[in-house]
Design a protein that fits this description.
The protein has 252 residues and is mostly helical. It has twelve helices and four strands, in the order E-H-E-H-E-H-H-H-E-H-H-H-H-H-H-H. Helix 3 packs across helix 5, helix 4 packs antiparallel against helix 10 and helix 5 runs parallel beside helix 10.
Amino acid sequence: MHEEIIVSHGSEIPAFKNSDEFLEYYAPLLKRSRFLLGAIHMTAAHGCRMRQAILRFGGAFAGILRHPIARTCSQFTHKNKAEFHTKLDRQELFKVDDTAQIHAACLKFLGRAELQPSQIEFLRATIQTLRNDLDLMVNATPDELFFYETIVSDPREYRRLFAHISQGQLAMEQSLETAIYETGVINPHLPKRGQSNEELFFNLSADLKAIFAIALLVYSYRGDIIKRYLAYGYDVTSPLSNEIISKVKAQM
């Protein structure tokens, strides 16, 4: 992003359990470095659970929304390639209130005593996408929210994000911006012609379509997530057929 910004990726740093652990890890680095430091994909310390601690520390919080079908499919594809299904405790996520409800509904709908590894990974990706997005849409302020689809296509949104996280301390050089957008560094694995959300959903197997619909409806009942997505321009129901929605509703 900038030569004076260092960003840690979630897979490269400890799995923080809470915001205190995160700040204990980063505070010494901040004191020794002249760089601005940041982190993304914070696992258990992800989303607005980090927000107040970061603001109290004097930092800037930002959340990036993306169409939930595209983000879920992206997570699922990445984790399949990395063989995350071989890791231990992959169903640990399903033991809390909201996730336990979704997990139970999926088992009932699919008529299974337990989910297959691929279904577990897709459900994990779906839950992590929806619950973190709901967290951001409820608890972050409008100026803290950014949009993936715009960031990868419009330099103005990138400049807005840059100005926000650097708190006006750094200037975005035109040469850097040009290099990012002309070379595709903004997202190197983004295909030249990405599939639409409708195409992504259509290509899923019937069981994965049902899993996504179940989780979406649960978070709609619990937090009006469908209406909240629509307010930000994300239509999450049109890719889902009325048949899928009706079948899921009938068993919930």
